Amino acid sequence: MRLGVVTGLADEARCLRVFPAAVRPLVRCLGPGPGAAAAAARDLLDLGCDALVSFGVAGGLDPAMQPGRVIVADAVVTEQGELLETDCAWRERLLECLGPAALVLVGRIGGSDRPLTTPDQKRAWGARYGARAVDMESHAVAREARKTGAVVLVLRAIVDPVDRAIPPWLATAVDAVGRPKPLRIARGILRHPRDIGSLLQLGRGQAAALAALRHVALDAGPLFAFA
Q1: Domains (ranges, CATH) in the chain?
Q2: With helix as H, strand as E and coil as C, how does 58-119 read?
Q3: Cross-strand bridge partners of residue 154
Q4: Tens digits of per-residue pLDDT, 107-129?
Q5: CA distances from 158 to 56, 164, 198 (A)
Q6: Residue 116 neighbours by CB distance under 10 Å
Q7: pLDDT tens-digit profile of 10-33?
Q8: Which of 52, 59, 158, 183 lies 20 to 30 Å from 132, alpha-carbon distance?
């Protein structure tokens, strides 16, 4: 068995540096969004990986999903109505490693092809698809895994709760390998100074989510309880 991990942001990939380099899983971060995630998954599959983890942050779609909360998905649902199930046995082993932590929940996660930036969009998405959280990479990873028969696990930490808006221009403030663009962010703040409060809240949520990802990674181990 060879494990590969797909992230959309460089900060998410850095969470896996809690493991020594000699035992760290293969990681591919080609930027946010389904296209980049699919390319990263194909790269890992071509390298012989037969187990993939979609690892990173997500947005909350119900009130229980607050910043720093972790969701282990039992399935990913897409806007096209696909239901992409994760590997049950692997998921159960992971949950045993994580223990009865109050911050870890199991549920359906949404796979969106576009950012959901307003509370109304998030509530509508959660109600329509029965998802507790949403991201833009997990469905692409699961699709690629299904093509080859590889198993998949989805582990995500919440950045923004359902009732918090995200400045739409932030979607263009990340480069092709998932790193923030400081000049783009600075220009966005100058053009939209009212977004400063939202950005500060988002920054705190991001810090809580990344801390949670590092914590669960350490508890799960470098193979994420696959074996």
Answers
A1: 3-220 (3.40.50.1580)
A2: EEECCCCCCCCCEEEEEEEEECCCCEEECCHHHHHHHHHHHCCCCCEEEEEEEECCCCCCCH
A3: 54
A4: 999 999 999 999 999 999 999 99
A5: 9, 12, 16
A6: 23
A7: 999 999 999 999 999 999 999 999
A8: 52
